[in-house]
């Protein structure tokens, strides 16, 4: 069977420079005089940026303390022994004492760090209901199947918030105390717990359901908290603007980490006499030890750190830029040697002719 000329014409593109690919194009011919300066300039630029990033990262001060309590006596060892892999562990508290010989420049950030915790596990990372977290009332009563086995309680009540991520919410708490002079009293350092989550998370992705008769508790009536939670979601904080699905700690935890060792922001220290940083003196971090990590062989750390223009302490980016820049310089020199060698051979061949 043959097509008619009209049928063939109907399927042919227009006879234009664009459809027939006749547009003028620039096809650069890279010569040694062009390629070699590009390699050297790119290498110098990468090395300069890498040095800036590396020294900026090294200028960031950090203090960290492993309070898992499994190594040796003292510290949080008693709490670790009381844990024994049970979830949830019995209530326990411990403290981390340290001294600062000079000002720890601010703003100071307080983080908690977990190791060997795979939030990137696929089954774990999808165990949530985004419709429920956006405050949709119907999703409160009918959680998504992805939340199973944390979809409904044994009594049949739907879980809010459902899923494994919410059920494993980090619930250790910290308070920082400062002793200004030896033998003097400890005063509590104010911790700013607001604004620790992404703005888009708090105002776009996470929303509470509409209150019923002005009560958020009535909006969650007929639901149950996750099995590992001691209280319902609407009682996470006494602040009505920081409870429910928009609770800052909850929102920070729900943004899953890409690596098994990760840090999450707990608070900022930037108020009162500590706006410029932590002055010299003795300090104590009181820790409410609630989160079990022995069952999966993890560790818990509390970290005090400041930041620079590039963010937190992370030398990897600077080292990566330095490595790429050095590689560009090396390749440039190799190409230069090859070019000079063969250029000399070409000149000799031309002389012989």
Question: What does this protein look like?
Answer:
With 353 residues, the chain is of the alpha+beta class. Helix content is 32%, strand content 17%. The protein contains eleven helices and ten strands. Strands 1-10-4-7 form a four-stranded antiparallel sheet, with helices on one face. α2 (32-58) runs antiparallel to α11. The radius of gyration is 30 Å and the shape is extended. The N and C termini lie far apart (64 Å). The model has no long low-confidence stretch (mean pLDDT 87).
Which labels suit this protein?
four-stranded antiparallel sheet, 17% strand, 353 residues, alpha+beta
Give a short overview.
With 353 residues, the protein is an alpha+beta fold.
**Number of DSSP helices?**
11
Task: Describe the global form.
Answer: extended
Instruction: From the alpha carbons, calculate the radius of gyration and give it in angstroms.
Output: 30 Å
Strand segment count: 10
Low-confidence stretches: none
H-E string: HHEHEEEHHHHEEHHHEEEEH
Q: Which percent band covers the strand fraction?
A: 15-25%
Q: Report the major sheet.
A: 4 strands, antiparallel
Helix content: 25-40%
Q: If you average the pLDDT, what whole number results?
A: 87
Strand order of the largest sheet: 1-10-4-7
Which structural category fits the helices and strands? alpha+beta
